[in-house]
Design brief:
alpha/beta, Rossmann fold, six-stranded mixed sheet, four-stranded antiparallel sheet, binds adenosine-5'-triphosphate, binds magnesium ion
């Protein structure tokens, strides 16, 4: 505790690294059982309800997330976007007063079933946060961190390059792999965090406002990357930025006060919303 007080940033980093290490240490078994096709549903949410200390924050949400699609979650602050996103990799399990109800299927299997290890789930379903959080190690070691924990030794240079290329960062850092990522711009750091997640080959990536702390040019790069990523993986992204949702996603879900108002193809939702509340939100009349 004393150390936390003296060097809070270092202590936080140490905790994040330990958590990452713990979450990578064991692999889930259901990866091998999944041979997804492009039409397959990755997630099926049936009446998902999340309560904090008994107070409902997400109210009976039912929707699907398709394989190799980008799904955007939009809605005003406090409507439950992050809460819903955290259900998808059992991150709410780590919040002591949170309770998740309803059914959540991942490739047809109950993600909250008794034999499912949430630590393993979080490795298959990676998460990138609003604020980039590179570890105080070299760029190379940040990317190699996950694969090393998985016991991979051979071909690490190739693994690192592949992940950095996947995150559209390779060209910018290939000559300084041994330097600290803390000298990178915010947008580069965020792409580094995406590369670090990619290096462990997740099936799904959850992003919670990944560009909120970035300038427009960096945001655009991350946005383009997110759209490209769906060739490899399934993406669910929370964003406050309407243009971003419109540009970077295939499907969009609009939430309001914990409820799902409307979900559908992004183009349709933005050009011909079915619900007047969706229209009011996307035209900037509230939120
Ligand atoms: N740990 C918590 N304990 C109690 N209430 C919480 C907790 N986390 C979130 N809430 C509440 O749940 C509701 C939904 O919060 P959530 O963070 O999911 O919203 P959000 O849509 O992501 O908002 P923002 O756009 O501001 O990030 C809010 O009313 C919030 O105050
Ligand atoms: Mg949020």
């Amino acid at each position: 505790m004393a150390q936390d007080e003296i060097r809070p940033e270092a202590a936080r980093q140490a905790r994040e690294e330990a958590a990452e290490r713990a979450s990578i240490a064991v692999r889930p078994e259901f990866r091998s059982q999944t041979s997804a096709t492009s039409k397959e549903k990755v997630f099926e949410m049936n009446g998902i309800e999340v309560l904090y200390s008994g107070v409902s924050a997400v109210k009976g949400i039912s929707m699907d997330v398709g394989h190799n699609e980008v799904t955007a979650l939009i809605g005003p602050s406090g409507c439950g976007k992050s809460t819903l996103l955290r259900c998808l990799n059992r991150m709410n399990d780590l919040i002591p007063n949170a309770e998740v109800q309803g059914e959540l299927l991942y490739h047809g299997e109950d993600l909250y079933g008794p034999n499912v290890d949430p630590v393993q789930v979080r490795k298959l379903i990676g998460m990138v946060f609003q604020k980039p959080n590179p570890f105080p190690k070299s760029i190379y070691d940040n990317i190699a961190f996950g694969p090393r924990i998985l016991g991979r030794k051979d071909g690490m240079d190739e693994t690192v390059e592949k992940a950095l290329r996947g995150a559209a960062l390779w060209e910018e850092v290939k000559d300084r792999l041994k330097s600290s990522p803390l000298a990178l711009s915010g947008g580069q750091q965020q792409r580094l965090c995406i590369a670090r997640t990619l290096a462990t080959e997740p099936e799904v990536m959850l992003l919670d406002e990944p560009t909120a702390s970035l300038d427009p040019a960096s945001s655009q790069k991350v946005e383009e990357l997110v759209y490209e990523l769906r060739r490899q993986i399934t993406v669910v992204i929370v964003t406050h930025n309407m243009q971003q949702a419109a540009r970077a996603s295939d499907r969009t879900a609009f939430m309001l006060s914990g409820e799902l108002v409307e979900v559908g193809a992004t183009r349709g939702l933005f050009t011909a919303p079915k619900d007047p509340r969706t229209e009011a939100y996307i035209t900037g009349r509230f939120g």
